[in-house]
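Chapter summary example.
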Amino acid sequence: MIGNYERDQPMGSMLRLIDGVFYEGKPSDEFELSVHRLGNGHAEASVRRMVWWSEIGPASADELEVWRRDLAESEEERREANRGRAARRATTKVRRLVKAAGMDALLTLTYRVLQTDLALCKKHLKEFVRRMRRLIPGWQYIAAFERQERGCWHVHMAIHKLPMNLPASNGVKVKSYNIVRAVWRSVVGQDNGNIDQSRRKAFSRRSSAKLASYLSKYMLKAFQDGDDWANRYSSGGLGALPQPERVRFQSERFADLVALAYEEVAMHACEIWTSLRRSWSGIAFDGPPETFWISTGPEGLQMEVHHG
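The structure predicted for these 308 residues follows.
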């Protein structure tokens, strides 16, 4: 049975086949405003044009044959598109988790030897987290895995700023850097592991959004390198993300809804990131804007606005 596969059509429409019945999707005059309040001064909002689907009718035997042939010919393209969607979903979730948790420090776990086994890297990370929670109960983290050019895996972790000192096994307070490095080496071998710890400095006003962007960079690198997307990030100790608020509008001007999005999340001193897209379902056309996205964070030293 062939179904649930969409195909681009001329003039900005799409065709979908479900259980042998054709449906056509076209841009509508309805928009959805979504507002995601993540906490810690972070919020995201988007305005996107909705799609209206209408039934065309059953597919003929000839049309089904053409559809099957198109499926076979476009298999690689569809696989690539699915990987792209998985990448966007993963980076979106990581970005929101970092913001919602208010992470403000970055910890990188490295190997000295050429460690090319991702499954082993994940096993090492799991044990490292377990031992860290003996020192800091409830320790939270969000991690992304990076494979360097030489094939060796690293782990980049967004965390909360560590205290200046942590207790060693004998109870004596030692610099946290030395303790965390010792914990990592106790997992991977004394002469194998190392760490790099950078934390937000008071004068830099570095936001959780920038940490999220940093992790996303490594996740997208994996996508560009052609790696599978399965479990390319890890997290622990975090609560559930807040649910977004969604409202539908019909026959409203896109510009008015963009202004409403600004009012919802940016009517205060804050850093701002924006994106505007003039395409629908990946098809570029000279029509009205289709999607607007805005992200705001706690006030920093400057406002940053990006258009794409």
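To summarize the output: The longest helix spans residues 75-101.
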